[in-house]
């Protein structure tokens, strides 16, 4: 388990920068934990505090009950062997082959030639680069370079893998294959993965939990499916919007959405649901129960690691009182709902 307790980091130079302002987080063993934030939010500083490449100004970094902030340099070097890291720009040694890049940490640790041969061969197979072992980094694609980075990070059998914008330099297709590899490593080897990114799609594709950071502060954290279906902070709402369109169509806005009910207006409601309940049975039950018309304006259903979540915007037509009753009924159901306003065209 990784516990960050009240971490602050101040860079002192000509201008003092308070990069982290009291971060507390717990990351469980075997999780894929995502930290998302915009440029300058403090993501890299935070992830580098986990392996103490960056020393927190205050606070504790506790990994499996050991507070890393209390260790000597020599003890830290020992602890870092259990923490692998991969980088946006791969950080490979250009004068070494793929095989020798992956062997490098093992050589430093004094492993025997036979042990290195066996370990590197296994890792090459895991990242599917066996046929590239004699190539140099310059002869590889971005995705292949990152695979080498991953194999090298795994050479010391780490418990934790830190990923610093690991897919930001890759195209969408290659990003997908690297994320699948990370997911596979997490499942097969049980390694805890902490991943920082500025892309919500990366969080959605593989993370179990997520925290959003802005201005050195965690604004919100939770299970990815919960955060996607019901983001609380403005920052998270913005990130969710970047991949799920929950905006009202422009045409509807033009019609004039009022916040006052009126006999000639219909109620516009947005529903957010997750899990087994979806829009169709809900709409059907409202129609049946109140004998009114409900039309589905638009919706979006998606999956996060096999859990379903979605948005639906519906228009409840008919008598004003029945609209209000129908909405009161919807409020009793296990969905998040909000009245977006009242639109003309009630009939
Ligand atoms: N070595 C340093 N010295 C001084 N200030 C720094 C240093 N490293 C980072 N900072 C500052 O700390 C703040 C957080 O930076 P950090 O790199 O952690 O953010 P980030 O979210 O990773 O951003 P990006 O996505 O652009 O890399 C920024 O204001 C940055 O300028």
Q: Tally the beta strands.
A: 14
**Outline:** elongated
Structural class based on helices, strands and sheet pairing: alpha/beta
Overall mean pLDDT stands at 92
Give the strand order, joined by hyphens, for the main sheet. 6-7-8-3-9-10
Question: Which second-level CATH architecture of the largest domain applies?
Answer: 3-Layer(aba) Sandwich
Q: Give me the CATH fold name of the largest domain.
A: Rossmann fold
Percentage of helical residues?
25-40%
Radius of gyration, whole Å: 25 Å
> Domains counted in the coordinates: how many?
2
Number of contiguous helices: 12
User: Strand content of the residues, in percent?
Assistant: 25-35%
The description of the largest β-sheet is: 6 strands, mixed
Question: Can you give a write-up of this model?
Answer:
With 347 residues, this protein is α/β, with parallel strands linked by helices. It has two domains: 2-241, P-loop containing nucleotide triphosphate hydrolases (Rossmann fold); 250-344, Alpha-Beta Plaits. The protein has twelve helices and 14 strands. The chain has helices at residues 43-50, 73-80, 98-108, 113-126, 142-154, 172-189, 200-206, 224-229, 234-241, 250-255, 279-290, 320-331; strands at residues 2-11, 17-27, 32-36, 58-63, 66-67, 83-87, 160-164, 192-197, 209-214, 217-223, 265-274, 294-304, 307-316, 336-344. The strands form three sheets. Strands 6-7-8-3-9-10 form a six-stranded mixed β-sheet, with helices on both faces. Helix 3 packs across helix 4 (113-126) and helix 11 (279-290) packs across helix 12 (320-331). It starts with a strand and ends with a strand. Adenosine-5'-triphosphate (ATP) is lined by residues 11, 13, 17, 19, 37, 39-45, 198.
């Amino acid at each position: 388990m990784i516990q960050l307790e009240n971490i602050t980091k101040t860079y002192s130079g000509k201008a003092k920068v308070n990069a982290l302002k009291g971060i507390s987080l717990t990351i469980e063993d075997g999780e894929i934990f995502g930290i998302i934030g915009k440029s300058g939010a403090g993501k890299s500083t935070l992830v580098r505090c986990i392996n103490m490449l960056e020393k927190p100004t205050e606070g504790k970094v506790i990994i499996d009950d050991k507070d890393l902030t209390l260790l000597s340099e020599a003890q830290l070097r020992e602890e870092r062997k259990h923490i692998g890291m991969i980088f946006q720009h791969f950080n490979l040694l250009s004068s070494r082959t793929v095989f020798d890049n992956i062997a490098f940490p093992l050589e430093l640790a004094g492993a025997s030639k036979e042990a290195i041969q066996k370990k590197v061969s296994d890792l090459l197979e895991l990242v599917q680069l066996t046929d590239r072992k004699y190539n140099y980094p310059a002869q590889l694609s971005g995705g292949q370079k990152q695979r080498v980075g991953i194999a090298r990070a795994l050479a010391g059998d780490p418990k934790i893998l830190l990923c610093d914008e690991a897919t930001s330099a890759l195209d969408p297709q290659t990003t997908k294959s690297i994320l699948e590899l990370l997911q596979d490593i997490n499942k097969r080897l049980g390694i805890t993965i902490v991943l920082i990114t500025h892309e919500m799609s990366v969080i959605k594709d593989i993370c179990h939990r997520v925290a959003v950071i802005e201005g050195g502060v965690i604004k919100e954290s939770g299970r990815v499916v919960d955060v996607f279906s019901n983001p609380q902070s403005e920052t998270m709402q913005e990130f969710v919007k970047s991949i799920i369109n929950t905006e009202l169509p422009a045409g509807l806005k033009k019609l004039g959405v009022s916040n006052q009910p009126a006999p000639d207006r219909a109620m516009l409601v947005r529903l957010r649901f997750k899990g087994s309940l979806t829009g169709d049975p809900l709409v059907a039950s409202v129609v049946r129960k109140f004998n009114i018309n409900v039309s589905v304006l638009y919706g979006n259903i998606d999956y996060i690691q096999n859990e379903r979540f979605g948005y639906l915007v519906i228009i409840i037509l008919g008598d004003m009182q029945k609209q209000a009753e129908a909405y009161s009924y919807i409020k009793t159901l296990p969905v998040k709902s909000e009245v977006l306003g009242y639109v003309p065209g009630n009939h």
